[in-house]
């Protein structure tokens, strides 16, 4: 057997922790032989939770951490002061080479800050973006950056395009994936100062498949594989996805209660509609990777169930097996 | 009879011009006695189109303009060189006091540039934002700015909040409307440099009802009446509305074809669904006003029908009767 891929899980993070984190870890280990999981958190809590399952004892280990960083805590302060928290301890395991990857459904802020400060960036990487997959009519696109580096500069966005290309090629298996920059019009001369500065740099970048600007209205149709933008914009895009979809479904449901005819129709479409909306959901895709770090950091949403925790952990296996960090280093250092 | 409110319509602008612009003008004049419309464009074309209708000859007048600014033309150049275009001529009518307001379904860029350069800003107004109404679960919110001033500064955003307040109070009849700034988190310390600078200014502004940050996911639910943001962000929000809604409807339609049961259901819900989606559509709201100018400039979308042209023209009547420009001037000059 080759060496195991070691994933440090913030077992205390997320709305459903520790139930979902422990169950997700057990399921992940059952599904992949290449994996070892460290459950980082309050020892007695995790031992009790874990005692309900049967699993390969060599491949799940509890690492005690007595503190928990809450969702609302200011991230920088929390990372600095709560040295014995599950987030900080799990991140140091990656930094010290005791784990290859980190997964958390806890505080996004603390994970983003800890990723940059504790795990640390790969040599040559100036900023590490958070890059979730978003659903489109054609499948998925990678939104990079969706929240890690507000007020990024043009050269950062070029690095995002390169890192996104490595991810989509090697994890999603898309050959020569298309890259577009979010803009307020399709023409090259449009945009704010950042986009105007970044556009020619992307255009002249030889090792990406840059196809120009993308207007936000064309993102959900799947016009480009990699959507490059500054983090504030990316966060707005991600949250508009969530907000518009939720609101529209509410409005449709209400509308279908307005006549007997459509009430009956609603009953008939219920199952297929649920399946369709499930496929289009942001949550299906599990965790968002933070790229460009010395190990993989995966942030999965706060309400993650065991399935999403499991998928996020399994993502770490592919990521490590595919040597994404090494490939990112190589691509970033190309001129 | 009191003095008529005079609206200069870019009769050549939009996908359906001049059919929709002429028909919309005839309908608007029939609906409001307080109105006079100038149809600006190619005289012979408009005369021919207008000859099909019966209308009050004193209240629709053709103003000849021999050129047309196309959608794809670079706006600044077009405004400078096509002096005899329908857009430039109609805007000069407002600037010269021959018209109170301007309506166009043509080039957005040329309308935005012309608004600032030709119509001109009210004294004290630093930037004139484009402010469409967007549909929410509760009704409408005003999105300000959605595309006129990329890279705006903090003091501009404060003016947008004030102008939006005047609009929502006087046009939409909302007493003490709530104002929120688009941010990537709800906490005061979150945000990019612009938001961090703007937040305390809005908080200390005595004559608006500022309720703090709004995350993009809460915009469609109707959390705030006035959504303040920089134009690049606003444009992304507006276009995500359009894109996600369109994509989701496509995905749902496709999903409903996946079984016989839901195919039958789909037939039953068809009418109510169409009505519901129509109510939630961005297009229902007609034109977006550009606020803070010496006369009202309304930009309605390129595919406007006669109904939307009519509604945009009638909006000018309310706007002028309510003396919005005077009220904006007064509010902007308050400290």
What's the gist of this structure?
The structure is a homodimer of 335-residue chains. The first copy, chain A, has helices at residues 19-31, 43-50, 75-81, 86-95, 108-119, 154-170, 193-203, 231-255, 260-280, 306-321, 324-333, and strands at residues 5-10, 35-41, 60-64, 101-104, 133-135, 140-144, 178-183, 209-215, 226-228, 288-290, 296-299.
Overall 3D form of chain A = globular
Mean pLDDT of chain A: 92
Report the uncertain regions of chain A: none
The oligomeric state of the chains shown is homodimer
By CATH reckoning, the class of the largest domain in chain A would read: Alpha Beta
- Give the strand order of the largest sheet of chain A, numbering strands 1, 2, ... along the chain: 3-2-1-4-11-10
Indicate the proportion of strand residues of chain A. Answer: 15-25%
Task: Give the second-level CATH assignment, the architecture of the largest domain in chain A.
Answer: 3-Layer(aba) Sandwich
> How many runs of DSSP E, i.e. beta strands of chain A?
11
Q: Name the helicity range of chain A.
A: 40-55%
Structural class of the secondary elements of chain A?
alpha/beta
Based on CA atoms alone, the radius of gyration of chain A comes out at: 21 Å
Number of helices of chain A: 11
CA distance, first residue to last residue of chain A: 38 Å
Largest sheet properties of chain A: 6 strands, mixed
The figure for the number of domains of chain A is: 2
- CATH homologous superfamily identity of the largest domain in chain A: Isopropylmalate Dehydrogenase
The most extensive contact between chains is:
A-B, 67 and 67 residues
């Amino acid at each position: 057997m080759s060496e195991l891929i070691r994933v440090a899980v913030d077992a205390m993070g997320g709305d459903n922790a520790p139930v979902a984190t422990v169950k997700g870890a057990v399921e992940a280990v059952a599904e992949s032989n290449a994996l070892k999981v460290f459950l980082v958190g309050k020892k007695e809590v995790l031992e009790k939770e874990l005692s309900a399952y049967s699993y390969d004892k060599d491949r799940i280990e509890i690492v005690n951490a007595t503190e928990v960083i809450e969702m609302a805590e200011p991230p920088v302060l929390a990372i600095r002061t709560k040295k014995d928290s599950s987030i900080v301890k799990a991140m140091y395991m990656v930094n010290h080479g005791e784990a290859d990857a980190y997964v958390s459904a806890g505080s996004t802020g603390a994970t983003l800050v800890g990723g940059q400060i504790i795990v640390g960036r790969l040599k040559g990487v100036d900023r590490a973006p958070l890059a979730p997959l978003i659903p489109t009519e054609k499948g998925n696109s990678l939104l990079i950056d969706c929240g890690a580096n507000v007020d990024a500069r043009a050269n950062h966005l070029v690095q995002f395009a390169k890192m996104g290309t490595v991810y989509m090629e090697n994890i999603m298996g898309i050959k020569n994936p298309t890259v577009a920059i979010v803009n307020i019009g399709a023409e090259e001369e449009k945009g704010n100062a950042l986009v105007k500065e970044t556009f020619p740099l992307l255009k002249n970048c030889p090792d990406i498949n840059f196809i120009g600007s993308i207007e936000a209205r064309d993102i959900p149709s799947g016009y480009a594989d990699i959507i490059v933008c500054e983090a504030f914009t990316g966060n707005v895009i991600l949250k508009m996805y969530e907000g518009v979809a939720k609101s529209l479904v509410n409005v449709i449901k209400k509308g279908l209660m307005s006549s007997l005819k459509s009430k009956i129709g609603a009953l008939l479409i219920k199952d297929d509609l649920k399946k369709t909306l499930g496929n289009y959901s942001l949550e299906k895709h599990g965790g968002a990777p933070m790229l460009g770090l010395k190990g993989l950091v995966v942030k999965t949403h706060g309400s993650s169930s065991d399935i999403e925790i499991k998928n996020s952990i399994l993502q770490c296996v592919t990521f490590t097996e595919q040597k994404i960090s090494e490939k990112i280093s190589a691509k970033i250092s190309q001129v």
